[in-house]
UniProtKB/TrEMBL annotation:
The keyword Methyltransferase applies. Belongs to the precorrin methyltransferase family. This is Precorrin-2 C(20)-methyltransferase. GO terms for molecular function: precorrin-2 C20-methyltransferase activity. CDD domains: Precorrin_2_C20_MT (cd11645). One of its GO terms (biological process) is methylation. Residues 4-211 form the Tetrapyrrole methylase domain. The gene is cobI. It comes from Facklamia lactis. Keywords: Cobalamin biosynthesis, Methyltransferase, S-adenosyl-L-methionine, Transferase. Its EC number is 2.1.1.130. Pathway: Cofactor biosynthesis; adenosylcobalamin biosynthesis.
Amino acid sequence: MLGKLFAIGVGPGDPKLMTVKAIETIQTLDVIYTPQADVAKKSVALTIAEAYLPEEIRIEARHFPMVNDLKSKMQQWESISKEIQVELEEGFNVGFLTLGDPSTYSTFSYLLERMDFKFNVEVIPGVTSFAQIAAISQKPLVLDQEKLCILPATASQEEIHHCIELYENLVIMKVKRHLKKILPILKAFDLLGASYLISDASMPSQKIYKNLETFTGDEKLSYFSTIIVQKKREEASI
């Protein structure tokens, strides 16, 4: 009998934000695959889920390079998806941990599109980082007829301009390496005071910057740093 593959969203950082379904599913698995952005460091997703792992489960950490070289990334996606398929063919139930939600800027999506259709796959959603950031700020992401744009910090200046013009609320994800591009755009639209940044949301290392008017961009931030812009509202009360 073929095994089943589960994509499990572990949320933004706090293990208590994992869903009951995610925790219960982990208890049934034979193998957990977990992504590593840095081979020298423990997987963040694994650290979040660690308290819920049964003792007998086998853990397979795999490096997913965070580079611009698409060919290198595609080779790794292909290799790991084949490896997981071998596990499933041998009858193992396999989990793949993802930070936040498996359907939101997740590596799992690239693995899924390479999986043979014969395998049974279940995606278990998780709390996204921007949902947690909105909870921390105690400000809703959207209200009434407002619109929300979610984009990666790698978006071009033109794309960011376009989104600011069209949407009342913006989520700009993983901004650490792109602040020199993003901050001047927000300043040009007079939105620094209407924007806030949270790094490592819900983790012990969490940092909050309530108002970007005094933010220099030189602050030491985590890779997991997100800016939320709410251009028709007063400064967020954090």
